[in-house]
Amino acid sequence: MAFAEPVTLTGRNWVVLEPLKREHADELLQAAKDGELWNLWYTSVGDPDALFSYIDAALKMRDEQGALPFVVRRKSDGRIVGSTRYFNVDAKNRRLEIGHTWYSRSVQRTGVNTEAKLILLEHAFEKLNCIAVEFRTHWFNFDSRAAIARLGAKQDGVLRNHQVAANGTLRDTVVFSIIASEWPTVKAHLRFLLNKPRPSTTANGA
């Protein structure tokens, strides 16, 4: 039995996370077109021609490394608005990473990411009994770094020249984590964020 078995995770108000399937390709493409996310050089969102390769790579990671990729479906209208993943799963030490996360531009800075992270963390700490959950992002992905810190994760450090990107540039990776003893406080914080009144949003999620 895999450490992280396929599961559907349902939030209270914003999202449902469903295990990724190849049948989600058309909906994922429409989600990525909202903001043309493949043009962000520091992310790994596949362009339209590479979408099936992106999905196949995620499913291969699931089958060979115990990862669990999800699509993020908005509850209000049933539309897929992004993707996220459990990966770098270390079953022996009860650790995993949450990442490969992206969202349509129109749902950024809404409650979508907060609730998605809440239910992912809840499952990791309370069902899988993880002792730590890690997040990593590109040094230049300032929005992602701010979003991870806003969740309540603490920065562990920076892996310098960690990876060679597809465009040949060198990636410095910023590492964050939440540990099990911090989870009750982080959970209360995330629920507080979700219950706060939100300003009216525009089509860009501003």
From TrEMBL:
<dbReference type="Pfam" id="PF13302">
    <property type="entry name" value="Acetyltransf_3"/>
</dbReference>
<dbReference type="InterPro" id="IPR016181">
    <property type="entry name" value="Acyl_CoA_acyltransferase"/>
</dbReference>
<protein>
    <submittedName>
        <fullName>GNAT family N-acetyltransferase</fullName>
        <ecNumber>2.3.-.-</ecNumber>
    </submittedName>
</protein>
<feature type="domain" description="N-acetyltransferase">
    <location>
        <begin position="16"/>
        <end position="154"/>
    </location>
</feature>
<dbReference type="GO" id="GO:0016746">
    <property type="term" value="F:acyltransferase activity"/>
</dbReference>
<dbReference type="InterPro" id="IPR000182">
    <property type="entry name" value="GNAT_dom"/>
</dbReference>
<keyword id="KW-0808">Transferase</keyword>
<keyword id="KW-0012">Acyltransferase</keyword>
